[in-house]
Amino acid sequence: MLFIRVVVFFAKLPEAYAFLSPIVDFMPVIPLLFFLLAFVWQAAVSFR
């Protein structure tokens, strides 16, 4: 019985976080932004 309740809980969980969908879609790009930030930072200090 507990197992069924846990499954139902996790089945409804995505609905609760549906408003985060645009952020989740953007998340894979975040590491690329850090790479770009490092490049811009080095350009600002003339690649010392």
UniProtKB/TrEMBL annotation:
One of its GO terms (cellular component) is photosystem II reaction center. GO terms for biological process: photosynthesis. It is a single-pass membrane protein. It comes from the Eukaryota. Its main location: membrane. The chain crosses the membrane at residues 28-47. The keyword Cytoplasm does not apply. Keywords: Membrane, Photosynthesis, Photosystem II, Reaction center, Thylakoid, Transmembrane, Transmembrane helix. It is found in: Membrane. It holds the Pfam family PsbK. NCBIfam families: PRK02553.1 (NF002715). PANTHER family: PHOTOSYSTEM II REACTION CENTER PROTEIN K, PTHR35325. HAMAP family: PSII_PsbK. This is PSII-K. It comes from Saponaria officinalis. The lineage of its organism: Eukaryota, Viridiplantae, Streptophyta, Embryophyta, Tracheophyta.
